[in-house]
Design brief:
- Keywords: Membrane, Transmembrane, Transmembrane helix.
- This is DUF1648 domain-containing protein.
- The structure is a single chain.
- The chain is of the alpha+beta class.
- It is 44% helix and 19% strand.
- The protein has three domains: 144 residues, no CATH class; 124 residues, Pleckstrin-homology domain (PH domain)/Phosphotyrosine-binding domain (PTB) (PH-domain like), CATH 2.30.29.30; 43 residues.
- Strand 5 and strand 6 form a beta hairpin.
- Helix 3 packs antiparallel against helix 5 and helix 6 packs antiparallel against helix 7.
């Protein structure tokens, strides 16, 4: 067909295919959690297994039936065969270690959580080991289990000695690697004006609410009553440990500065630092310690692995970090702290 001389117009399209930028590798926290829990479980079972081997070596030195339970005065009031007693101890260790390891795998987003759960797993195995050795050790050379005596200081040792391997294993769990972000803080996140040329921006101290104090005092008082009732002053180690635990987990200093957020116990441990370049955003949420975390103090949410420093019901600072991690801290002025942290995070962006 002949052209009529009119110019021909052609629409030209050029398709540009741009290769997507590689996404940042997600933090493989689950793999880290599994490794930490496997190491802890292996250590716990090694301790319990060694105790079982020692118990078998003592078999000829023990009564036909061994004392398996003592009353409040330290007098045996129940017996069972050695095999059954060892089996019960092993089942106890298996149940406790697998339960706590499962929690660690499910909620171990943070290194602090993995360390805590690894320590608890090892303590559980050590508890089973010391319980078995102490209970059978006081019966060696006896023909009648009713003659066995279990002094209070040995009961305290059963609880405290397993802390040694637990602390060692917890300390060996690696810290989280740095995971800075360059993504801007969302525009809808609250901000607060930062003073220029200053290091410390804001600092406050937080303490327990009424509910936490009542629970802590009740637990310590109950332990004292038990120690007095059985006439074993060694058991006062238990309330003393409870008081130390309360001091470590119910009083904190919260500090916001150019480096980010630091939450530190009055005893120095536990503590956590959220670097400014790892803060995704900070907001205010309402928290009920018992309903949301199952209690007061330094807690871990099993559903999403968030760490909580929750001492009372009310407003709390929620800090979202890279890697899907979250930190919740109950504060009187949570809104101001959230605004400061978002502004600090803005400054930390390149």
């Amino acid at each position: 067909m002949r052209s009529n001389g009119a110019p021909h117009h052609f629409l030209s399209f050029r398709l540009e295919v741009t290769a997507p930028m590689p996404a940042a590798a997600p933090h493989r926290w689950r793999r880290s959690a599994v490794r930490a829990m496997l190491g802890a479980v292996a250590t716990a079972w090694l301790l319990a297994g060694a105790a079982v081997l020692v118990a078998r070596g003592w078999q000829d030195d023990l009564p036909d039936r061994v004392a398996s339970h003592w009353d409040g005065q330290g007098v045996p009031d129940d017996t069972m065969s050695l095999g059954t007693f060892v089996l019960v101890d092993v089942v106890l260790v298996l149940a406790l270690t697998l339960m706590f390891a499962g929690i660690g795998v499910a909620a171990g987003r943070e290194a602090s959580t993995r360390r805590t759960l690894a320590g608890v797993v090892v303590w559980s195995g050590g508890l089973g080991a010391t319980l078995l050795l102490v209970t059978l050790g006081v019966q060696r050379g006896l023909t009648d289990p009713a003659q066995a005596e279990l002094p209070g200081w040995l009961l305290a040792a059963v609880l405290l000695v397993p802390l040694l391997p637990a602390v060692v294993v917890a300390a060996l769990v690696p810290a989280d690697p740095p995971r800075p972000t360059t993504t801007p803080v969302p525009a809808d996140a609250p901000r607060a004006e930062l003073p220029h040329g200053t290091g410390t921006v804001w600092e406050t101290r937080i303490g327990p609410g009424r509910g936490a104090l009542v629970v802590a005092a009740g637990a310590a008082a109950s332990a004292v009553v038990v120690a007095v009732a059985v006439g074993s002053w060694w058991l006062l180690v238990v309330p003393a440990a409870l008081v130390a635990l309360c001091a470590a987990t119910l009083a904190f200093t919260v500090r916001v500065d150019a480096s980010g957020l630091r939450v530190r116990s009055s005893l120095g441990r536990p503590q956590t630092l959220v670097p400014a370049d790892e803060i995704v955003r900070a907001d205010v949420v309402h928290v009920n310690p018992l309903g949301d975390f199952g209690g007061w103090g330094w807690r871990v949410g099993i559903d999403d692995g968030r760490v909580g420093v929750v001492l009372r019901t009310g407003d709390a600072l929620l800090v979202e970090r890279t890697g899907g991690r979250k930190l919740v801290v109950t504060l009187d002025d949570a809104a101001h702290a959230a605004g400061l942290l978002n502004s600090v995070a803005d400054r930390a962006r390149p």
